[in-house]
């Protein structure tokens, strides 16, 4: 299937939810603060892959920090599923607002819709290996499409996909075999391109098979509700609060969820008791309230435009209906 269109809400008003460029890591490597080896595409660090090389591999590599760093990777998302392995040392991580520590021998698994950060805020000593594969999804309910060079037997790949889609435990204690696979992957990325491609393909396939064996050994619980369309809509609505100033209509909102307008509106009603337009207006008004509290004061016309209202008058009317006060009057109550 064609890759799903990225949801526009990767851009947050206060934070940036774009596919991670790893700029702090790149700058640290250039400054000689750590060892870095990677291959990938787009803005990811390391040797660049051409359009027809290892299609579906977004990024893989490792860093080795022999002393504490003064940087971390801020909250971000990836356009694929990411496997992050701590080979030595440990690092604080945060996934969807929940903080924990990734210890050596543990693997962090994050899906494209899950904001996460590495470091709190800085990265300590350690050797970290990562792999990001684009499986053609941006929301939980979309069907996965693995790269063509993933050669697991179809029933095994289907089972692995279910495990990854229907269980969202973030951190896993791994087996020695999984560690060997990550280490082989780290070795492969140090080989010259394209000579290292075969080693990467073998390492990634071996890793996926080892992860499947781990899931089988743990008899993990699968939840089908994690992959239904209603959850995808909920993820979208959570993000919409942070990008409500964009020019949204019910068609574009439904399209971002990969749904028809009728089904999308049905889910929004169940989740919020509002129509899509009503929920969007609520998000915009709540954002307007946040802007009205800012110092120095933001002009009302600027607030109206930034929140996505077509005119200052429409904003003032909607705001008065929402709060009982005109925007300027409401701002004075917050002083």
TrEMBL record:
It comes from the Bacteria. PROSITE patterns: HTH_ARAC_FAMILY_1, HTH_ARAC_FAMILY_2. Coiled coil: none annotated. Keywords: DNA-binding, Transcription, Transcription regulation. SMART domains: HTH_ARAC. Residues 230-333 form the HTH araC/xylS-type domain. The keyword Membrane does not apply. The keyword Cytoplasm does not apply. PANTHER family: HTH-TYPE TRANSCRIPTIONAL ACTIVATOR RHAS, HTH-TYPE TRANSCRIPTIONAL ACTIVATOR RHAS-RELATED. This is Helix-turn-helix transcriptional regulator. It comes from Luteolibacter arcticus.
